[in-house]
Design brief:
Four copies of one chain form a homotetramer. In chain A, the strands form three sheets. Chain A has a seven-stranded mixed beta sheet with strand order 7-6-5-8-9-10-11, with helices on both faces. The first copy, chain A, folds into two domains: 107 residues, Alpha-Beta Plaits (2-Layer Sandwich); 197 residues, Formyl transferase, N-terminal domain (Rossmann fold). Chain A is of the alpha/beta class and 314 residues long. The first copy, chain A, is globular, with a radius of gyration of 21 Å. Chain A has ten helices and 13 strands. The two termini of chain A are 14 Å apart. In chain A, strand 6, helix 6 and strand 7 form a beta-alpha-beta unit. At the A-B interface, strand 11 and strand 13 of A face strand 11 and strand 13 of B. Chains A, B, C, D: It comes from Rhynchospora pubera. Chains A, B, C, D: Keywords: Hydrolase, One-carbon metabolism. Chains A, B, C, D: InterPro entries: ACT-like_dom_sf, ACT_dom, Formyl-FH4-Hydrolase_C, Formyl_transf_N, Formyl_transf_N_sf, PurU, PurU_ACT.
C-alpha cells in the first residue's frame, strides 16, 4: 500500500538532502526503512550490516514473518550522519539490497530531509473528521501537507472551516456529485500531485476506474466495526442490532466496498440508554481518533499490506 | 426473556418465606422487582407508593422508556421487613399493580428467601467456559444451582472436571449427537426442572422445536463480536478478516442462529503478531468473563428484552 | 457541588417560561430533577406522585442510597406539559417536597426553558483543552454559554484561538500572574456572573480565599490518574514511575491540591517505546475527552457530591 | 531481572539438547535470545550475522534504545537446525558476542530443548490468584514447573486446592508466620531449586535479607494501580479515594515495598454503585489476568529491566 510512496523520491528530495548535508546544521538524521521480500536466511544481517558499515546506529527494528508464509517484513529506524552517508547513497544502498532479495518494497524516509507527504482530504456533509484533521495538522501533529479539500457539499454553513482554509491557503473544491456524474475526472486532476488520499467521511463510492487511475493509497474511515455494518448508515445498523459496543474502522480503500485491509479499530461501550443520536456522537469521537491514528502510522511507514486483506502495523 | 422466571414461584417458595418470616432471624430482606408495561403517567408513583405503604425502603430504581415507544421498563431494589410485608403479600401486591397497568412482566425476587435459579450447562469439547463457571460457582459468585451438565463430548481426558462434578454431586450427561439425532428429547427431560439454560460453548444448534418445548430462556456465549462472524469458527473468520479487535458476545438463543438479543460484549486488541492460536486464547479469556457476567446480570433480574433484538441491561 | 446551580433560577427564567408556555409552540418539555436528603421511606413515592399528579411522565429515574449511610440521592427525567404544569409551579412543587424531607439539594432544570449555564474557562499556555472545548461548544455539544476566557498566557502565538473568540464575541482576558499577585480579585469580578468555572489546564493554584469568595463549583482537569501524581508535571512523574497505563482525571476543585471529588477518569496504555513526548500527547487526548465529559455530565445534573471525597455520577 | 535465568543453563540442558539433536525427531527448533549491552554501532548486524551464518532464520526482532541513554536492548526469535547449530554451540556463539559488546545480559532459550522454568508460588488466605495459576498451568498455558506452594495459611477450608495439588504431586508447605518469625530460612530452603518466585497475593513482606539470599527474580501482584495505593488494603484505599477506575499491577519485588519495576497493569471501571465488595471482586478478576500475563511474558524472555524502576516488555 505504501508502494506509491516510493515514487515521491523526487529530485527535489535529493537537492534538499544535498543542501542540508553541506550546511552548517547538524548532519545527524533519523532514517526509517521498510522492507518486504520473500523470506530467506540473512536478511536482517544484510540490512543491519549495511547500516552499520555506514556508521548508522539502529534504534528500533521490527521484523515480522507470518506463520507458514515465506514473506519477510521489516521496519528499521536508525540515526546516521549525512556527511558520511549522503541521502542519495543511502537510497542506492538500500536499493541494492532490495534487488538482491527481490524485494517487493524497500522504502527509505528521512523525515527531516524528505518532503512531507502531500495529501488531499475528501469530505461530505459531516465535517467532524475534517475539522479534527485540520486542528491536528495546525498543531503540527499530522506530518503532511494538505494540497486541497474536495467535498460534494458546499459547506456554506460552516464558515469556520472555510475561513480556516483561506487563512492557511488550502483550496476548497466543491464538486457536487449527481447521478451518473461523480466528478471523478476533475477529482483525479485535483489530486494528481498527492502521495495518498484521505476520505474523512466522504459518502460517495469511488469507482474502480478512479482507484486504478489514481494508483496510490487511499485511507478511509468507516463509522462501524468492520466487517460488521458495511455500507450505508452503520450507526443505525448497529443501533438496530442491539450491540453493546460500537466502533470505528480505518482501512485502505479497495474496489470492494468497506472490505479493504483494516489499519486501526476502536470501540466504545453503549447501553440501552443510548439512542441513535448518542450512538452517532460516540462514533464520531472514535472516528476522529481512529482516522488520525491511521494517517500518523501510515506517514511513519508503520503500515504494510499483509496477505490479501490484512495489514502489518509496526 | 425473564418471563419464564415467573413460573418458578412455587409453593416451596411460599413455604420457605413463611418459615423464614416466623423464625428468629432478622426479618429484613432485600427485594428486587422488575416491571414492563405500556407507558403511562403514574407508574413509578404507583410502584413506589406500594413499597412505601408497606414500609419498604427503595435503594435503587432504574426506569427506561425507549424514545418514541410506548413501553415502560423498571427495576427496583428495596429493603423490607418480612413480618410487615410477608413474601406472599409482596407477590400479590405487585400482581395487582401488574394487572392495573396491563404489565407484560412483573417479577419479584427476594434472593435470601426464594430458591436459587436452577440451571443446566450444555458444553462440547472446549471446556474453558464450563470450568470457569464451575470455579465461580464454587466460590459463591454465581448464584445458581447447577442441576446437571450435558455434553456431546465424553470428557474422558479431563478427569479434573469429572472429579469436581462427582465431588459436588452434579450429574454429567454424555449425549453424543449424530446426524439426524441431536438427542434433544433426552435433553428436554434432563432440563425440565431448570429455570434457564446456559450454553457454555455448546457447538450444536438447538432446533426450533427444542426452544419451543423448553420455553424458557437460554443464554449462549458466541466467540465473536456479533453480528459479525456468525456461525462456525468465528475466531478463524476474524483472523482472516484482519481485524484489530476481537470480541465475545453473550446473547439469548432464538431460532435464528447467533441473532438473539445481545446481553454483553467484550473486546480485546489483536495485531499482526497474533496467530490463530493467540486469537483463540484471547477469545477464550473474553468468553469466560462475558458469559459469567451475563448469567450474573440475568440472575439479578437486570436483563430484559427490548423490542425485537435488543436488551435492557439495568 | 451543584448547590450553586440553584441560584441561577432568576426572574429571566420565569419570564422565559411564561413566554414559552403562552406561545404557540409545543408546550411539552423535558425536565430534570435532582434530590438529596436524609434517607427515609416514601421519597420516591412522593417525588413520582408529584410528577404524575401534574400529568408528567417519568422517562428515567436513578436512585442511589449508599450502603450503611442514611442518605438518599435521586435524579429523574420527565416530560411535562407546561400549560398544565407551569415552570414556576414545577419549581415550588419540588421545593415543598424538599422542605418535607429536609433536602440538602433539590434542583430542577428544564433545558429548553431555562437559561444555559454560564461558565468561564481558565487556561494557561497549553491550549488543547481550551481549543477542544471551543470546538465542541461551536458544534452545539457543550450546552453552556462561555462568558469569557481568562489566561495567564498572552496567546499571541495562537492567533487561531483569538480569532475564533473575536468572531464569537467571547472576551479573552490576559491576566499575567506574578509571585504574590495571582490576580484573583480581578478574576473574581470577571467570573461573578457565571454558574461554574472550568480549569482547562490552568496551571495556577486558586487560593482558598478565591474558592470561598466564588462559592460555586469549579471543575479541573488533571493530567494524571489521581490520587497518583498530584501536583506538578504528572506526565513526567508517570514516565519516571515506569507505569504501563497513563490517565487523566476531571474533578472538583477543593482547597487541598488535586484532592477534590473525582468526576471522571480515563486511561490509555503506554509501553517502553513511549517517551515523555508521547506520554504528553496521549495524555492530552485523554484530558480533552475527560474534561468535556465531566462538563456535559455536570450540565445534565448527573454529578452529585457523595460523602467527603466522592461523586455520584448518574 | 532475568539475570538469574542464565544460571539455569545446566549440564542437564546440554544433555537434553544433545539427546534431541541426535534423535530421529525434527531437528528444527525455535530459539529466543535477549541481549543488553552499552549501545554502539553494529550490534544488530553482529547478532543477525551470527544467526544467519549458522543457517538460522530470524522470525522476530525487537530492539529498544532508550532516548539519551547509551544502552541497547534486543530480543530475537529464530528458527534453527540443531544438527547444524547444536544447542551448546549456539550458547557459546552468543557468549562470544556478549563478551565482545560487554553485555550485561545475553540469554538464550530453546523452549523445546531447555528445561522449563521452575517456580514456587507463595500465597496467603486469598487464593483466587493461586487457583487461577493452577488452572492455567493444568491447561498448559503457563510454561513452568511448579516446585511447591508455600502459604502462611492452612487452607483446610479449601480442600479443592489441596486435592488438586495432591493429584499433581505438588507439595503444599504451610508455614505460619509469627511476629519476629517470618519462616524465611525455611522458605529459602524450599525455593532453592527454583528459577523465580511468584507472589500470588502473599501478604507478608519479604525481608531484604531474603531477597539477597534468594538472588533471583520475584514477581508480585498488587491489587492496586501502583504507584497509587501502596501497602495494605489498596481496594479500600481506592474505594475511599472515590476513584472511577481500579487496577492491578504485576511488578518485580525490590526492598522498597510495592515500588519495584512494573511489568503489567490492567484497569476496570467502577462507579458510585460499586461497594467495597464489588471493588474487591473486580480487582480479583484483574489480578488473575495481570499476574498470569506477567509470568507468561517473563518466561518468554520478554521482560527486561530498564533503568532503575522501569521494564522493557517486548
Amino acid at each position: 500500500m505504501v508502494g506509491a510512496q516510493a515514487r515521491a523520491s523526487s529530485s527535489l528530495r535529493r537537492t534538499l538532502a544535498r543542501a542540508f548535508s553541506s550546511s552548517s546544521i547538524s548532519p545527524f538524521f533519523h532514517g526509517i526503512h521498510v522492507f518486504q521480500c520473500p523470506d530467506s536466511v540473512g536478511i536482517v544481517a544484510r540490512l543491519s550490516e549495511c547500516i552499520a558499515s555506514r556508521g548508522g546506529n539502529i534504534h528500533c527494528v521490527d521484523v515480522f514473518v507470518p506463520e507458514d508464509k515465506q514473506i519477510f517484513y521489516s521496519r528499521s529506524e536508525f540515526a546516521f550522519d549525512s556527511t558520511r552517508w549522503p541521502r542519495d547513497v543511502l537510497e542506492s544502498d538500500f536499493q541494492k539490497i532490495g534487488k538482491h532479495f527481490n524485494a517487493e518494497r524497500s522504502i527509505v524516509r528521512v523525515p527531516d530531509l524528505d518532503p512531507r507527504y502531500k495529501i488531499a482530504v475528501l469530505a461530505s456533509k459531516q465535517d467532524h473528521c475534517l475539522v479534527d484533521l485540520l486542528y491536528r495538522w495546525q498543531e503540527g501533529r499530522l506530518p503532511v501537507d494538505i494540497n486541497c479539500i474536495i467535498s460534494n457539499h458546499p459547506r456554506t454553513s460552516n464558515t469556520h472551516v472555510i475561513r480556516f482554509l483561506e487563512r492557511h491557503g488550502i483550496p476548497y473544491h466543491y464538486l457536487p456529485t449527481a447521478l451518473g456524474n461523480k466528478r471523478e475526472q476533475e477529482m483525479l486532476e485535483l489530486v494528481e500531485d498527492t502521495d495518498f488520499l484521505v476520505l474523512a467521511r466522504y459518502m460517495q463510492i469511488l469507482s474502480g476506474g478512479f482507484l486504478q487511475a489514481y494508483g496510490k493509497d487511499i485511507i478511509n474511515i468507516h463509522h462501524g466495526l468492520l466487517p460488521s455494518f458495511k455500507g450505508g448508515n452503520p450507526s443505525r445498523q448497529a443501533f438496530e442490532a442491539g450491540v453493546k459496543l460500537i466502533g470505528a474502522t480505518s482501512h485502505f480503500v479497495t474496489e470492494e466496498l468497506d472490505a479493504g485491509p483494516i489499519i486501526e479499530q476502536m470501540v466504545e461501550r453503549v447501553s440501552h440508554k443510548d439512542n441513535l443520536t448518542s450512538f452517532v456522537m460516540k462514533s464520531e469521537n472514535l472516528e476522529k481518533q481512529c482516522l488520525s491514528q491511521a494517517i500518523k502510522s501510515y506517514c511513519e511507514l508503520r503500515v504494510l499490506p499483509y496477505e490479501n486483506r490484512k495489514t502489518v502495523v509496526f
